[in-house]
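Researcher: Good morning. I'm working through a list of sequences from a screen, and I'd like to move beyond sequence-only analysis. For each chain I'm collecting a predicted structure so we can compare shapes side by side. This is the next one on the list. No need for commentary yet; just the structure.
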Amino acid sequence: MSIYTPKELPVIAEKTGIDKANYSWKKTLTLGMLAGAYIAMGATLAVFVGYGFPGISEQNPVLPKLLSGLMFPVGLILVIIAGAELFTGNNAMLIPGFMNGKIKWHTVLKNWALVFGSNFIGTIFFAYLLVHITGILSHAPWQESIIHTAVLKTTQPWHVIFLKGIGANWLVCLAVWLGLTAHTTTGKIAGIWWPVMAFVVLGYEHSIANMFYVPMGIFEGAPVTWSAFFFNNLIPSALGNIVGGAVFVGGMYWYTYIKLEKKD
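Model: Good morning. Structure tokens for this chain:
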């Protein structure tokens, strides 16, 4: 069976975005918490596998990033195929409907805010109860790795985190876009996997993943405050994610295949 064409994808995204915008707040909240937990699952696997070979990694610095990148897409695969509401994906998916006047601006902001908050609940729930309390990452070399990650993510310049946020969600939303093209589960997984792997390997900043990495580091003893997490990392990465998803994916493809097609 053939895949959907690039021209068809903004139309599919528009319909999907309208459906999402019309969910009840209870449904959005529930699916948002699930998405946060799913991303935390992928992030946990990424840390466990990616940083589980310290001796080999010392001589091969790209190896832990590559292994983490291969593992992390599990989270987005669960979001797309099992069904859940992810803030970063919705940054792109609601834009075609908004630009065509079928979704109001306040509805977009309401959806993003509710999904962002519920993603946070889901990631913290999974990180604290199912990773920290169970001790999955509480021993060497994983504990040192997650502490280092939390410190690194909260000590980079604000504008660097913002720009890395753009890069992360440009790739994540392209993964969501590619997931729309396929008619089969295998095809969707293949489409999702590679762009997500790329953003992890390149070290870009995904706000929902950071809801796991930095709090997990704090739980494990990182010298990072919650205010540093929110102001130095979460806010700039989320703003960058909005630009990456809304402008460079949802906006660009709406403009190219819907607005310009109407002019022609």
